[in-house]
């Protein structure tokens, strides 16, 4: 394949399974947007806060379930998790349709069932994101993330308009019924996918739910690149959420449109996003990731200002086109950034934290914007949201994304087996690992500096505590100590969790050792509860 074809934004579609899932997901996303229009329009005669609760009900489950869902996706076969989520959402959407046809769908029941659908989305999200490298390869994750955003926005270009027309012509029950049927396509593709055995069987570990949650939190906390992606997401999403939360109110109150007109406004956002996919490769080359984040926030600020001050539907629709472009550019940049920084053993949990920030930001911001709109008025609320986006753009200079060229999350099984005189049990521990180095005087400052990155590596992969000590009797002798909770955790460090980046950090520090010396590693077991070596 030529370089031009490889760099094409559509290159991941050459992968058969990715292409089939992309098409099936497009149909499902169209159904979801049709349902969103139906749900919001059933409530549009009520208060602004109640309308925005539809978005909250759909997003809040991610806040509650994203981290447990990430653990599930890392510990169980991801295809089975995805299929289970599809059939669960099929059942809930069917219940929505039946109740709508019976005219028994009260606002409370509507929001409750929307919440349950959000639970299915929360269960599905980390597993869906985590299988992307299997489908397209790490080198095309950026393009795959952009195509995922194109999928959502293409659905936004079709689904709302179609949903608005169906609601106006036949009622909300039919959009709920279509959404229920749309889950069958994704389930069928997943069931037919012959996933490689090595990928289908996650590493066997006996860690419990809380231990797995802590391991994921520990990794993210000690990965500066991932933390910076989360910060940039947190700075963009609340202001961006105002557009989706308040657009139905702007359509009905400021522009005097019905459900069909509202669907066309959403279609304009989607059309802008689809068109933006063609511009993204050039934009990345010209602006870089941080330029896209700043430019996208500025565009969103301008669009929110137009929505607050302009009351001509045609002009508003034109203004929404660049909003779609900015949305896909920013989200695909953030998604690709977090994907490329996560190793396989913790990928779903790391992505769950990202989805928690992304969806949680929308879930918490939407009712806030609704309350501000009821209090200060819709136009003032939109201008305040635009100001938040200006602050987001300005903050890129202070908190940019870190460069990812030096990050390689490929597994690296480079630690030799410990030469122990007995075989510990998995639960034995805590384990104190000590590594002795000899460093000449002229290299000690640089050695300590390089060991800071080694320290983050140890903590990411399982260390509860870490320290580097210089011998008071022999200043050339340094002792690195780190504590791991159990032998099973340390075994996972050896054979599952280390990456090529971790290996590079170790090699760069060890290059400063006294010539002719090598690190000396020992393992000590806690004996406070009894002897470590069996009698």
From TrEMBL:
The keyword Transmembrane appears for this protein: yes
Mind listing the UniProt keywords for this protein, alphabetically? Cell membrane, Membrane, Transmembrane, Transmembrane helix, Transport
The record places domain Major facilitator superfamily (MFS) profile at: 1-404
Q: Tell me any Pfam family this protein matches.
A: MFS_3
Where is this gene product found?
Cell membrane
Chain segments annotated as transmembrane: 48-68, 80-102, 108-128, 165-193, 229-250, 262-280, 292-310, 316-338, 350-369
Q: How does it sit in the membrane?
A: Multi-pass membrane protein
Q: Does the keyword RNA-binding apply?
A: no
The identity of this protein, by name, is: MFS transporter
Task: Show the PROSITE patterns listed in the entry.
Answer: MFS
Q: From which source organism is this entry?
A: Streptomyces niphimycinicus
